[in-house]
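Hi everyone,

Forwarding the result from last night's run.
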Amino acid sequence: MSVPVNMPLPMQNAIEPVPANAPPTEKIVAESPSIDLEVYASRYNGMARLQRLMHVAEVCPILREEALKMAITYVQTTHNVNLYTFLHKQLSELNPTSPAEQVPADSFAYDPVWVETKMKGAALQLEKLSVELRFYKSRSFTESARRSLEEIADLYLSCGDLESVRECHSRMYGYCTGVEDKMDLLFRIIQVIIYRQDWNEAMKYITKTRSLDVKMEVHRPNGPFHTRLECVAGLAELQQKNYKVAAEHFLNANFVYLEQFLASSVSPNDVAVCGGLCALATFDRPELKCQVIASTPFKLFLEQEPQLRDIILMFHDSKYASCLTLLDEIRDNLLVQMYIAPHVSTLYAKIRQRAMIQYFSPYQSADMHKMAAAFNSSVGDLENEVVQLIQDGHIQARIDSHHKILYAREADQRTSSFKRALALEKNFQRIAKMTILRAAVLQSKILVKSDIRTGGNKQAP
């Protein structure tokens, strides 16, 4: 077989299953999630499904074996022999067997024949596509050449060789004849960057895509490309911990276009979870009411996650005990979701802080015993949390530790009025001096000229 020199062999540049440039994260353990793993995995396809199953196997001990077996079954529909070998290694470490033991015919045994067959098949397919590409280039068939490069990129993606996929995408740009072709290519590039979890690079390409989207969809602001862009932008902002910006992006998504385009990146459930939690953690009450609860487009997403919908409604209705209890119940379900899992602890803390701030805001004083009951906490733990909120400037209050009462700090209206009056006086004096100076200049008939060397024109006040 003669494969062109500028086309690397499949699996030649195959990367590790877990991206090498992914930032280190805290240890995440989901003890007892209540999810149907098969239903969860079916929301995605391609590399997105494999990465999520591997995440479940990593963080959830009780689902580890099932997730690995599902990943092995699915990876056999691709050409990714490196990942196939990696998954079998993980499964064998989970269930070690002695060589003397008889392995059942229907078990998940490593199949070297499959590996060899897939490698040869990928090489043959690459050779065929390369020949077609050379033919189309020699005849200047631009559109056909672009489609051939797309097929080659898809083959490398099936092999797990993301670096070669990027190289194909770079070559495709010269064959894009229209704005839609360029937009599609940019989304392909962003998708690969998301697989690599390089979020800074993702933001650069999202900016490029947004500028192109303005030209392309000036009459369709809620079209399919706009929805795709909002979702990937929300995902990138989430990973950079810009939670409010991420929520705004997710809230702009259109449910109608999402399922048909983004199974390889995010699902409607991801939009509901990420957008809903980020909004809870960062939006004030009017924003939550207007942009989330009363939002007709986002209601369609929340229907996919009824528990989260109930949590948002309870939070808005100030039913904080029920809201926080339900949040604790779904915590493990969130930890098995790949992109939200590293942010669960931070978002939960922000949601609890915002709930405390909203609880106390209407009152001049609050009984901390009642407040502790409202937040499913002891008085001592609640007092420590409130002290932290006061130190951070989120609550203007003081604590009566003996009687366990929280008092709002009363603003000194007299001092504030004097400060405002002094500021107005200084501003009035400045304006009066400027007016007197201008009147004096006009009365003296003084003419102000600009510097001739700078090419300026004569000016008079």
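The first strand starts at residue 365 and ends at 367.

Cheers,
N.
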